[in-house]
């Protein structure tokens, strides 16, 4: 989404030299802190020397910086009032409505955006996420099919489609979709997280281990995959391997109480008995699009994967009766 706005901004640079610096800082083309970029956006919207296209773009940027859906919607209302024929603004506002579970208005905005840009795979994708959140799987899959046809190299589209198949217990279809995605982008870590989940559902421990090992190789400093593999080794009665993963986790987060306690419990185990059933993974991001999972105030010029947002994921461990918080990124 950032890329689309940057292209627009590059096409019509601001006509006043005094506004150029603020506009570039606002859109992330010049280096600055998030606070400086936000301040620059506010200056752009308050300066009469800039045209309405640039002011609308600044309102759009302010909406992207916001972690408050209602406030973002207010900024996008201003952008749309100034530039009602810009499809991206309807996409943004529709997404914010979906965060508020105002799905009727979200879908109405997506329709307006698609009327202006019928081949926008981004709008189709965000609408698919909204349908997914509503439990409208057939409509979500239809939009994802169109999005993939329009942008076959976008890895996230394959991943979300696989997640829907998995929710429908269509594991063969999920694995096939992930294989297609991996062929497009072999180093996309989410594919292997999703694949591990499919194999876990199938009871295929070897497949799950291979997928988690690949995930860890791609994201060696993220705790999420390492912890899932540690749980798998516990379930399989392989305490030495689980302890090795807890050692890695403690190197990443030395103060994590659960890691220390779990490692100590494994050292005391006799015979390597399994520690409990497989964990239930709770993803706090839910069905939110990847763009919204970015860290608050991330510079707008960065792509989603470049921003490497750090989130807190929670994993419930039935055998231990606890929910573990870990640092992870999607």
TrEMBL record:
Record keywords: Repeat, TPR repeat
Compositionally biased intervals (Low complexity): 283-301
InterPro entries for the chain: TPR-like_helical_dom_sf (IPR011990), TPR_rpt (IPR019734), Ycf3 (IPR050498)
Keyword check for Oxidoreductase: no
Residue numbers spanned by region Disordered: 276-303
Positions of transmembrane segments: none
PANTHER family, per database record: TETRATRICOPEPTIDE REPEAT PROTEIN 6, UDP-N-ACETYLGLUCOSAMINE--PEPTIDE N-ACETYLGLUCOSAMINYLTRANSFERASE SPINDLY-RELATED
TPR repeats: 87-120
Domain of life: Bacteria
Protein name: Tetratricopeptide repeat protein
Statement: the UniProt record of this protein carries the keyword Repeat: yes
Phylogenetic placement of the source organism: Bacteria, Pseudomonadati, Pseudomonadota, Alphaproteobacteria, Hyphomicrobiales
PROSITE patterns: TPR (PS50005)
């Amino acid at each position: 989404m950032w890329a689309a706005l940057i292209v627009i901004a590059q096409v019509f640079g601001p006509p006043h030299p005094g506004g150029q610096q603020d506009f570039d800082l606002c859109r992330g083309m010049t280096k600055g802190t998030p606070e400086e970029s936000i301040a620059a956006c506010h200056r752009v919207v308050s300066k009469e020397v800039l045209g309405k296209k640039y002011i609308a773009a600044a309102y759009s940027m302010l909406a992207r910086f916001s972690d408050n859906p209602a406030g973002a919607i207010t900024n996008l209302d201003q952008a749309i009032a100034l530039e009602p024929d810009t499809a991206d603004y309807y996409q943004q506002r529709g997404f914010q409505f979906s965060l508020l579970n105002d799905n009727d208005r979200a879908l109405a905005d997506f329709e307006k955006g698609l009327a202006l840009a019928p081949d926008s795979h981004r709008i189709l994708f965000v609408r698919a996420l909204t349908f997914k959140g509503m439990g409208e799987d057939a409509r979500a899959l239809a939009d994802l099919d169109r999005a993939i046809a329009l942008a076959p190299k976008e890895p996230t589209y394959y991943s979300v489609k696989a997640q829907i198949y998995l929710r429908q217990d269509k594991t063969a279809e999920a694995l096939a979709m992930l294989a297609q995605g991996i062929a497009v982008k072999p180093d996309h870590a989410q594919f292997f997280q999703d694949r591990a989940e499919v194999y876990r559902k199938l009871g295929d421990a070897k497949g799950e281990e291979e997928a988690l090992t690949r995930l860890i190789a791609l994201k060696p400093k993220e705790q999420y995959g390492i912890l899932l593999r540690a749980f798998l080794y516990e379930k399989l009665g392989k305490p030495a391997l689980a302890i090795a993963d807890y050692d890695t986790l403690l190197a990443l987060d030395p103060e994590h109480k659960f890691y220390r306690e779990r490692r100590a419990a494994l050292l005391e185990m006799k015979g390597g008995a399994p520690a409990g059933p497989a964990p239930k993974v709770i993803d706090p991001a839910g069905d939110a699009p990847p763009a919204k999972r970015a860290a608050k105030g991330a510079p707008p010029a960065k792509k989603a994967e470049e921003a490497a947002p750090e989130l807190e994921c929670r994993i419930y461990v039935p055998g231990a009766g606890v929910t573990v918080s870990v640092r992870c990124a999607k």
